[in-house]
# Entry
Amino acid sequence: MNRHVRTAIFPVAGLGTRFLPATKATPKELLPVLDTPLIQYAVDEARDAGIERLVFVSHPSKTAIERHVMEDARLTRELRARGKDDVAEALSDAALNPVEDDVRFVMQTEPKGLGHAVACAKDHVLPGPVAVILPDDLILGRQGCLSEMVEAYTTGRVGHLVATMEVPEDRVHRYGVLSVTGKEGSIVIADGMVEKPKPEDAPSRQAVVGRYILDANIFEALATQVPGAGGEIQLTDAIARGASEFGVGGFQFSGRRFDCGSKAGMLEATLELAMDDPECLAILQARGLAEGRRAVAA
# Structure
């Protein structure tokens, strides 16, 4: 089995309704956590993991995402002309270069679910397994979650590897949940998964979050996948169908995950990063928030 992960898919076509009116004109993936947009964290994580091709599954109304992730030569020149070389350099380093980087943009014009979004990228991926990154699942740690997963996948046995975390019983209905059969190091072995089960029906509390490494066969499964929860093509349903043939594992990552698809999660992530910024930390301390934040984290 080819275990070299060369492609990452970024499903970014969603409307971001939970952040309206902020997302009426600004894609949710461009909302900043402190001073960096969510999509930038996702791109940096993919590049750090050695990904060769980045495929963005977007929507025609969200052209701002492409403008952000791609290098803006005109802006760089203008910044340098104003003597802001350090800013220009930082922006250039963070951006994707249309000549040096392998980047594709694909449109998902109808909201048919995450599985459908991944299927839209089929004709644009490199041979072998593919990674999927959901930008509004921000995972912060000393090593990127996808880098950890690529290492585990390269030496592992399962065909589909998903990032998982243990959640309280009253929250399992928000996630896809693994049916766990065993454990091998940082990977929990599963024989399937259930999308958004009721607490009494959940096979475990191992919840799937927004990082996946999937055998290339996932595209065949998605081509025949019937709509599931919410009437959408669920990626977890297609993964579960291949459990017996390809194997499914849940990777227990070392970082901390923030659900930045919600206002509470976005605030929590912002506060976490503000603690490492001297200027922001001074404000938090002045308001008596820093000590409480540290106590909660501990």
